[in-house]
Amino acid sequence: TWWREYRLPLLAAGMLLVATCAYFGLQYYGDYREDQSINAQLWPRAADPPVTPATRAEIDDDLYLAQRGLNQAATANSPSALSALLAEGSNSVFYYLKRLYALQPSNRSALRLRHDVTQLYARKARDLLDANRASEALQLVVEGQSIEHTFRLFQLRRMICDRQPGLCGV
């Protein structure tokens, strides 16, 4: 029958497919665990302190200011302007994220905002990489990773280092 004639090649192909999926799955999982480990160092787990009405007002104000800074950063035309809005100084989004973390570490809006910041870094870095401005793209990736390690930023860094090893000290 058909099955008897083709079973060995089909079983071999199936085993190869399973082995390939397992290999890439384990590699992805290893990268994910490494990112989580680094994020735990950047943002150590802490219990939420009690939220008083005054603290709630501070949280709301900081969320508003951080979101406003992120919206402004989305329209930034240069890496230096993006860095100024997101990571540098006492009015940066990163400054407000740190304040929010100190007030309420598990605040979902702040965690989502932190992720949005890193996605913006990744998008802007990718645009710079596509424009053959790899050193500026690497700078944004490194800044983004100082806020949160994500797989997307990890992939971008790897891509930049593969294209221009001299930038990464390789």
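[next item in queue]
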Amino acid sequence: KGNMTLYIAESATLSGSPEPADYPILCPTNASGTSAWRYCKQSLIYAHQADKLRIDGGGAIDGQAKALLKAGMRGKNGGRPSLIRIFFSKDIAVRNVTLRNSHFWTQVYDHCQGVALENQTVRCPPVFANHDGMDICDCRDVIVRNNDLESEDDVICIKSHSLAGVDNILIENNTVTCHRANAIKFGTATTGPIRNVKILNNTVRYAKFGGLCIESVDGSKVSDIQVRGLTLERCAQPIFIRLAFRNAVGG
């Protein structure tokens, strides 16, 4: 809930259950029916309208992806839990924690304002498909800074599933490694406008596909994007920019 801190001490690990039945389906009551909710229905930590929520402390959150896979939780999209999902909330901070072994998108922020994601270590190795590092969906006033991020699928992923769009995002001083997809990516879901994004002094150590991907394939108007001090290493496609129309919403 809001106005609280979930404090995980440096020596502590919060572990998700290895039992699939322990992850209920929880979605906002005002869900729009877009893919943000179709795909993201379960998680270890869930918050809705939880203003001034903090997750901090230096400890770890472990999703036990291998155990859940062994227990039968499969499927490319949906049917698998994220570590963190936060919807329709203001003044959110997730700092100084290690997030590892999520069985789906590691952390999802949807229709939030004022989000600080700082000093995180994310380790989401290629256990299965669609293990994103972080998904920032239809949010505004977001800081992604000083993180060490490694994931199977897209690592820093900016999305818009609705006409609300994305505004005022700072992505700064992060180290990014992607095993099977893209390091820093706009999309694929790009419905509303994406504007005022600064990508400053980041390093991509490896990306199987794109290092920096700026895409609009669902009608999004992408504007006011600044990229400076970006180091790209071992990327099959260092920079990929695409304007297209796929006649669909989601992804």
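[queue empty]
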